[in-house]
Amino acid sequence: MIEQLNNFKCNDFENYLKDCNPSDDEIKEILKKTLSRPEILSIHSKSNRKERDKFLASLCNILDSRGDSVKEIIINKGKLVQISEELFDNISNVIEECEISKLEQATQIWAHLTRVESTISTIYSDIEKSYQQKPKTLLVTPFIRIKTKEGVEYSPDAAIERQVSYLSLTLSLLSYKNNWFKDGKVVLPNRVIPSEEDLFKAGSIELLALSWKQLEDNALRSILFGGDIFRDFGDDVPSDAREHGVKTAYYFSRSESEFEMFDSIACERFRKRSLQNFMEIMSHKGIKPTISNDLISVGKLSERSFISEDEIHACGNLQDVFCTNVFEDDTDYNGLTLRDWIRGYFTLRYLSDQVMSGEKLPIFSFSDMLKSLLDSGLTEVNALTFIELASFGKNSRDLFDCPLIKLEDSNLYLAYHCTVNSSVPNLILSRFSSLESESGKKGYRFEKEVIEVFTKHLSPCKSFKFKRELEEYEYDCVFVLDKRIFVFECKNRSLSWSSAVKAYRTKEYLSKTVKQVNRLKDALIEYPEVIREHFGVDVNSYEVIPVIFNCMPFSWLGKFDDVYISDFSSLSRFAKSSKINIIMTSKDGQVKQSSSKSKQWTGSTPNSDDLIRHLENPIQLRPFLNSRKKVEQWWIANTEVAFVSTDYEVDSEKYKKAEKAMFSPPAPIRNEANKRAKVKRNMIKSSKRKNRNKK
Question: Which regions are flagged for Low complexity bias (predicted)?
């Protein structure tokens, strides 16, 4: 029935209503499930919109006799998607009317590319100047802000991402409009040199493209995680908007759902961990001899020869994520090993550095690009595969992970401004997510590492499976810790990387995993002989605790549908040490300072009460939870229509203060001798004052 509803058909649903007479609450759950999907929004297809609207009208008719709260779900969701699509249409119409859209196709796209090249070059110039003024010592944090030459402060990462988002979306829109796709890849007209006037005209599209991106994100998040949209006309529009000609204003009204918050925190934690790993590598004095100065002299990654310090960092990060030895693992990911992916992207970064310095031009002949990849150690087959997978196309998320653009003359344009300082581990994980790359070995290796760590630091841990009648039960990780039995279901799934749709898919996946791990818990209680066989104890005398355990840093505060969610980074730290480290960096390297301010154990070793406290309130989440902020911003849809987006992010200043307050060492405790000396000094001072007063 749900599948039929998802295809905008009502027949089975009508029969269900007649045969089962469900309550209004049961109907509302069904409606939320079928109407809170990304497919309900149709950005481009007018025919899909008509089919969906007809479906929504049919639902209203079928449920006419039901309570108002049932019909409100259909009406509100319909209003949300229809107004969002109206705004998309407004932006599309304005793009068509812009002066830049009247130019030749080649001039249009190369004006956008050239404009972004110039803007990002200015950002990197600001970054270089800020590096010359950095403090001697600071907390390792991914939240960096710099200043322009005019003194305006901004986030360089956010500014670069904004430019790449604008260019990626514009490239996709123009490719669909002008039919530039060939075998799923974009093939652009050969480069032309745009005039200054052309570059100026391209600026109008920049704001519209960013409006489109914000609209898509807010519309999808409101549909998938809850939200509404409101409209003001005429005098009800705020005065500051009316002064700019806005006659109709829309407002996305939404609160950040718990899932969105923890999903966002997971991505920020991964970035922070990556930065800490990189600083640790940079402070290691023995790595310089393993780094080559050019592609010709560099050896293969399997030989532990590297193009840069960043490449060493990438190998370490991906080893953690995939629980493998990158230098030896030959697992296939879309025709390439992890080594091939890493070396391929770092070859592009190396070439991007040469373009930035003026040594090379951003357009490469296909043979030159192939030669560079061959020189770096890839085989010809793998080099050709990498070029295809790194070329921008229909399934590309953006120009960060697909920075090669094919041209009509068979040359390749390298979007060097997107690649030169990018995080290669993030690019690879993002590309794998787009390609839906999976490896069964990835999960198995994670389970093996979990068992080793828990056995060493917590309690003997086992994986096993058993069968009763037709049912089979397979356990990744089970251990007994004093009065509790912990059942860990290990998952090695990629993060959403700020994608609303991927976050929604992850939530659906976790909901299914909750049922899976509860089934495993119930089986241990139903068949007590299993625990007796493996651990020699009576399961009825213990509390059984189910946990979803992630390789990536995704944890939950408390329980998600009555099941704990934790991750390897936070829980392995808990298992290994009661203390939390604060990491400082300076020109002399990285320093870890242990702090007992936030002890995780009540005794000399962890017990099950300590572990439950950690699962209820992971210490790694606290500075992020204490620094969320709501950001509302105006965006244009056309000259008379605008909308306000609602987003949530980390307040970098609050985060720094929260982290410092949590992890900085407590004030030193004065000993009794010091206290007595201080009291004596105070008594002497008091006595002298009294003697002066007598005189």
Answer: 590-600
